[in-house]
Amino acid sequence: MHRRSLLALAALPGLAPAPAPALEAPQGPVVLSLSGRVRNPNRGDAVVFDMAMLERLPQTGFSTRTPWYAEARKFSGPLLRDVLAAAGSHGSVLRTLALNDYRVDIPADDAQRHDVLLARLLDDKPMSVRDKGPLLIIYPFDQQPALRNTLYFSRCVWQLKAIEVQ
Fold first, then answer.
1. Three-state secondary structure readout of 84-130
2. At a CB cut-off of 8 Å and minimum separation 6, what does 115 contact?
3. Of the chain's two ends, which shows fewer C-beta atoms within 10 Å, N or C?
C-alpha cells in the first residue's frame, strides 16, 4: 500500500486515535495523576485531576458486594474508560499505585470490556482515606459474576493516587 493511501486510511474516523480534549488546570488538590502513554498537549509528562475535574466527567454508579464490606454498597463516579479517554491514554497496561504503595497492573482492556468504575462516592458520600478513598477502582461484581474472583478483587485499588499507562 502506498504511503498516501495509509495516511488517508489513518484520517478515517475510528481508525486514528483521537486527540485528547484539553483539560483545564486543577483548581484543588490533585487526587489522581496519569503518566506514561497519555496525550494531553497542555500538560507536561502527566495528566492530573482534582476531584472537581473527575466530578465533571459523566458519572455512573452501581451497587455490588465485595470481600471488604459485609453488605452490598453503592459506588459512584466516572467510568475508568472515561478517565483514560480524558487523559488521552493509548496503552495496554495500567500500572496503578495506591497511597499505601500497593501496586497492581491492570490490562487497559478491562476498562473497555467491563464497566470498571473510578469510585469517588461510597453510598453517595465522599470516601475518606479511612474508607478506602478518596478514589477506588471497583469492578461490577454483582452485574458480572465471572468477575467475582481473586484476580479481579486484586485489581480493585483503593486509595488510588496514580496510574502509569504503558
1. HHHCCCCCCEEEEEECCCCEEEEECHHHHHCCCEEECEECCEECCHH
2. 60, 62, 79, 140, 143
3. N
C-alpha cell at 109: 482492556
> Whole-angstrom Cα distance, residue 120 to residue 75?
7
In single-letter form, the type of residue at position 71 comes to E
CB atoms inside a 10 Å sphere around CB 110: 17
CA angle 28, 119, 43 (to 5 degrees): 40
- Cell numbers representing residue 133 in the block: 478513598
Residues of the chain with pLDDT under 70: 1-22, 40-44
Residue count (the chain): 166
Q: Alpha carbon 124 to chain centroid distance? A: 19
Domains of the chain with CATH codes: 28-165 (3.90.420.10)
Q: Which residue has cell 477502582? A: 137
Per-residue pLDDT tens for 90-105? 999 999 999 999 999 9
